[in-house]
């Protein structure tokens, strides 16, 4: 009986080895990317923070306490207090939600339209392609932030306009990236094979070309989130984003800069939050590239 | 005519290169009968693949364009259509359903990020109107037909998990899935090793006979031609120069080019003789020679060959050949 059991078990393990799942393989590779693995844990923590934000703050982030203004970090106030005595750590926690939502939504919109444009112009080529790419070139001629400032200046300040601004300046870079990938994929034999089987253009784009561009899309999306977080903070810092009483990281930096010389923690703490978040997204993006791109 | 499934007449295809038109096919003529395997042979660059792409009208992303001629396809018993001037949408519905194609590179002709099953069911759902489940059953049947073991598992695998021979079998299954009347195989075995090659050829021949399907087999391997084809068309520099049944062609090749091709096939056991080859190479479409395009490389070339293109002459046993050698007057003059 023992022997029989063992062979059975062997067969099962053999079967396991044969069953191939792309997700499992990706996870195996991901585990080997040590820095990126830790960065991704940090991002998960950030996302949880963004979701639970208001429920886990040690203090009310909006409540002023004039008996405890500009206190340095201590056990009572982990990140100190600002000029109104508000707990900076609580404000950073609540601010996570603003930063992440705004950047995810804006990069998401940018990625959506950019991918569509890129696929269409790469696939069909010709005059349409030239037109789209020239438009992108025009957008690229402006530095990202200047473009965003200009857009917000036209639309008026506010977080929703920041979303629009960042989406718009994200579109051309996604379009260019996906167009490049499309140009590469559409020349491959399997696209022609699909066409020889009667597949329509739409189907070829959806089923054959788009899935092949996803890996670069994911990598770039992650990298872009970092950029977007910086852009949101910058716009808020300039007073073009969130209103001055919102616990947004950029706003906190901006409000605190008067105290830079005397109580630098007011600026340093939200600065660290921005720095770590952007760093984490970039590291994860790099790690994803190593995992997803077979050429690296 | 009823017996012919595809008739290619004076087919001319050209590319536009820097606003300059470059003709690559110079009036290709041939036909394929029902249930026949027609071999299309010639060196690289003589327009074999372009001929097949012209039939399928797979020109997307290139500047190629059919500039003249017609490709008559017997769609069903009553209807004959000219593939050169039907709308793209109608052409698309023909592709895969009535004319299917197998490509040279099994390694790259399957989408690496799509499961075998998804790719196989794609044309089945499109052309036969099957639902997902029925298409899947049909796909598994097709895989079994082409000799793939554990077809119900393979269907959930990705192309990189299969070997080259297996992938080519999948491609064949895909091409055959909607029961096409005509199968175009563009060097289907070139990328495979010899033992697999024989298996794949056997399989194709068997499927072809089972379904009484017509096949256009493009190859530069005369061994494959001898094994597979009923009739052979020899192309050189964008023109058909000889057409004959397989037996006739190998027994008594008429055109010097065909002779050269056959002579350059290595023979097992022949150790002493140096392998013969045809000198030079196929002229590029931009600088085609005057007169017969093969003349500069031809060992039997006569003065007339450099001046005028020979007409196609019919011979006994339904053969055709375009060469001045068989024009009695010219021969007399030169002799």
Automatic annotation (TrEMBL), chain A:
Transmembrane segments: 36-56, 104-126, 217-242, 262-285
Annotated membrane topology: Multi-pass membrane protein
Domain ABC transmembrane type-1: 96-285
UniProt cross-references to CDD domains, sorted A to Z: TM_PBP2
Subcellular location: Cell membrane
Gene3D superfamilies the UniProt entry points to: MetI-like
Keywords from the named record: Cell membrane, Membrane, Transmembrane, Transmembrane helix, Transport
Domain of life: Bacteria
Keyword Nucleotide-binding: no
One Pfam family linked to the record: OppC_N
Cited InterPro entries: BP-dependent_transpt_permease, MetI-like, MetI-like_sf, OppC_N
Purpose of the protein: Part of the ABC transporter complex GsiABCD involved in glutathione import. Probably responsible for the translocation of the substrate across the membrane.
UniProt similarity note: Belongs to the binding-protein-dependent transport system permease family.
Full protein name: Glutathione transport system permease protein GsiD
Organism name: Aquibacillus albus
Native organism taxonomy: Bacteria, Bacillati, Bacillota, Bacilli, Bacillales
From TrEMBL, chain B:
Topology relative to the membrane: Peripheral membrane protein
Gene3D superfamilies on file: P-loop containing nucleotide triphosphate hydrolases (3.40.50.300)
Ranges for domain ABC transporter: 6-262
UniProt organism field: Aquibacillus albus
Keyword Phosphoprotein in record: no
UniProt entry tagged with the keyword Hydrolase: no
Protein name as annotated: Peptide/nickel transport system ATP-binding protein
Any GO molecular function: ATP binding
Alphabetically ordered keywords of this record: ATP-binding, Cell membrane, Membrane, Nucleotide-binding, Transport
Localization, UniProt: Cell membrane
Family: Belongs to the ABC transporter superfamily.
InterPro entries xrefs: AAA+_ATPase, ABC_Ni/Peptide_Import, ABC_transporter-like_ATP-bd, ABC_transporter-like_CS, Oligopep_ABC_C, P-loop_NTPase
């Amino acid at each position: 009986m023992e022997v029989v059991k063992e062979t059975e078990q062997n067969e099962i393990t053999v079967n396991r080895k044969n069953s191939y799942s792309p997700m499992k393989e990706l996870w195996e590779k991901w585990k080997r990317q040590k820095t990126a693995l830790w960065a991704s844990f940090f991002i998960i923590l950030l996302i949880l923070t963004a979701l639970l934000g208001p429920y886990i703050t040690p203090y009310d982030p909006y409540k002023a306490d004039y008996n405890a203004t500009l206190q340095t970090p201590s056990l009572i106030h982990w990140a100190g207090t600002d000029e109104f005595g508000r707990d900076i750590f609580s404000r950073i926690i609540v601010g996570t939600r603003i930063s992440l939502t705004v950047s995810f939504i804006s990069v998401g919109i940018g990625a959506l339209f950019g991918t569509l444009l890129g696929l269409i112009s790469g696939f069909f080529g010709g005059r349409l392609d030239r037109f789209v790419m020239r438009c992108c070139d025009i957008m690229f001629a402006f530095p990202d932030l200047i473009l965003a400032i200009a857009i917000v200046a036209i639309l008026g300040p506010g977080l929703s306009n920041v979303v629009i601004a960042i989406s718009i300046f994200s579109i051309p870079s996604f379009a260019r990236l996906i167009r490049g990938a499309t140009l590469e994929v559409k020349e491959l034999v399997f696209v022609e094979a699909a066409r020889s089987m009667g597949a329509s253009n739409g189907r070829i784009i959806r089923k054959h070309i788009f899935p092949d561009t996803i890996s670069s899309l994911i990598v770039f999306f992650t990298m872009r989130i970092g950029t977007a977080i910086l852009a949101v903070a910058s716009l808020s810092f300039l007073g073009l984003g969130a209103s001055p009483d919102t616990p947004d990281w950029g706003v906190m930096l901006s409000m605190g800069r008067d105290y830079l010389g005397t109580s630098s923690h007011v600026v340093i703490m939200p600065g660290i939050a921005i720095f770590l978040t952007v760093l984490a997204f970039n590291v994860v993006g790099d790690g994803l590239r190593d995992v997803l791109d077979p050429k690296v | 005519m009823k017996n012919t499934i595809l008739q290619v007449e004076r087919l001319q295809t050209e590319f536009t290169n820097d606003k300059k038109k470059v003709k690559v096919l110079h009036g290709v003529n041939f036909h394929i009968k029902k249930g026949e395997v027609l071999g299309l042979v010639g060196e690289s660059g003589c327009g074999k693949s372009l001929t097949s792409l012209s039939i399928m009208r797979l020109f997307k992303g290139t500047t190629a364009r059919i500039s003249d001629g017609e490709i008559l396809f017997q769609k069903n018993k009553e209807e004959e259509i000219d593939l050169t001037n039907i709308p793209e949408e109608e052409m698309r519905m023909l592709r895969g359903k009535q004319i299917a194609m197998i490509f040279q590179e099994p390694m790259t002709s399957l989408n690496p990020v799509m499961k075998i099953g998804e790719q196989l069911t794609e044309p089945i759902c499109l052309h036969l109107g099957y639902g997902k489940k029925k298409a899947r059953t049909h796909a598994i049947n097709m895989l079994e037909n082409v000799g793939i073991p554990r077809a119900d598992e393979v269907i959930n695998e990705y192309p990189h998990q299969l070997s080259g021979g297996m992938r080519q079998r999948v491609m064949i299954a895909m091409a055959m899935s909607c029961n096409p009347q005509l199968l175009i195989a563009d060097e289907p075995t070139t990328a495979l090793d010899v033992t697999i090659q024989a298996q794949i050829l056997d399989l194709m021949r068997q499927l072809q006979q089972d379904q009484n399907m017509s096949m256009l087999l493009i190859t530069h391997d005369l061994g494959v031609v001898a094994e597979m084809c009923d009739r052979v068309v020899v192309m050189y520099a964008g023109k058909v120069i000889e057409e004959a049944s397989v037996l006739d062609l190998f027994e008594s090749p008429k055109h010097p080019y065909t002779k050269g091709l056959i002579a350059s096939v290595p023979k097992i056991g022949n150790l002493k003789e140096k392998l013969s080859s045809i000198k030079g190479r196929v002229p590029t479409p931009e600088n085609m020679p005057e007169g017969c395009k093969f003349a500069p490389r031809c060992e039997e070339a006569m003065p007339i060959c450099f001046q005028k293109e020979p007409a196609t002459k019919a011979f006994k046993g339904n053969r055709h050949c375009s060469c001045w050698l068989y024009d009695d007057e010219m021969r007399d003059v030169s002799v």
